[in-house]
Amino acid sequence: MSTTYERIADEIRARIRSGELAEGDPVPSTRRIVAEHGVAMATASRVLDALRRDGLVEVRRGVGTVVAAGAGAGPAARPAPSVGDVVRAAMTVADAEGLGGLSMRRIATDLGIPTMSLYRHVRGREELLTRMLDAVYASAPLPDPLPDGWRARAEVCARTMWGAFQRHPWAAHVMSMTRPQIVPHGVPHTEALLAAFDAISGQAFDIDTRMHLTVSVFQFVRGVGVSIEPALLARQDTGMTDEEWMDRTVPGLRAAVDPRRYPHFTVAASTDIDLTLDSLFEFGLARLLDGYAVFLGETPSAP
């Protein structure tokens, strides 16, 4: 584990190697390091000593400590990243390792910049997660034109979101239903459903009813979607598929259950049922929309 002075030195090294601090530019003084990082003067001095030993900085009379000649040159130098670069780097980490592997320090390391430089693009982790969620919506546009009919449109919206959650399993955890984030690319999804529920079978529904119908669809998809990431991480941790895990677990479950007290559960545990997240999504969506059909005065579909 790196010490405090090594961590600060690493941040300044990254700024030099990325080209953010060019040859001849002044580097943070000991007083500035003390002020920005809350460390002792001795620690700040060790930071600059380490950079001098690496040949990255030099002391120039009348100027102070600056980036040494050639320190930031060569193939390692990179242009400063954009907001899009930061978001894409964060999504790459989250897609591969889940939200648990995501940190501002990790993103900065992958981009080869100091951690504090990220805050020029995003105010913090919450804003970064919101931008990531917006990027997920941007990658999953609704078809144009949308199908006619409220049910067909609800199915398209739900399946589009479900596909996005499968590609980015962390996104369902980020999405909030009670404190919705500002995600401009998500607005078309909301608008599509609000419009779909506008007038059905000659009935006009107020905006309060239509918003509840709309958000309930999103909530259902999110509710199933939050299980995608844990399922993927469990496969990585155990090396077993869900089917293999069930094959190993069910015999013990059967032995632990008294069939006289739980006859229906015993039958279910003894039956080969194809129960997956996809099947739960499709079955649940169909039954949800069947309920909508009754509420809207239409006939529900056959199971």
Order of helices and strands: HHHEEHHHHHHEEHHHHH
Biggest sheet record: 2 strands, antiparallel
Sequence of strands across the biggest β-sheet? 1-2
Uncertain parts: 73-77
What is the CA–CA distance across the termini? 57 Å
| Total number of strands | 4
Strand content: under 5%
Report mean pLDDT, rounded to a whole number: 86
Sum up the overall morphology in one term: elongated
Number of helices: 14
Structural class: mainly alpha
The gyration radius over C-alpha positions equals 27 Å
Give the helix proportion (percent range): 55-70%
Domain HTH gntR-type: 2-70
InterPro entries: Bact_HTH_transcr_reg (IPR050679), Homeodomain-like_sf (IPR009057), HTH_TetR (IPR001647), Repressor_TetR_C (IPR004111), Tet_transcr_reg_TetR-rel_C_sf (IPR036271), Tscrpt_reg_HTH_GntR (IPR000524), WH-like_DNA-bd_sf (IPR036388), WH_DNA-bd_sf (IPR036390)
Domain HTH tetR-type: 80-140
DNA-binding region: 103-122
Short précis:
It holds the Pfam family TetR_N. Among the domains are: 4-67, Arc Repressor Mutant, subunit A (Orthogonal Bundle), CATH 1.10.10; 83-122, Arc Repressor Mutant, subunit A (Orthogonal Bundle); 141-228 and 278-295, no CATH class.
Task: Give a verbal description of the structure.
The protein is 58% helix and 4% strand. The chain contains 14 helices and four strands. The N and C termini lie far apart (57 Å). About 2% of the residues have low confidence.
Which terms summarize this structure?
14 helices, 303 residues, two-stranded antiparallel ribbon, two-stranded antiparallel sheet, mainly alpha, Arc Repressor Mutant, subunit A
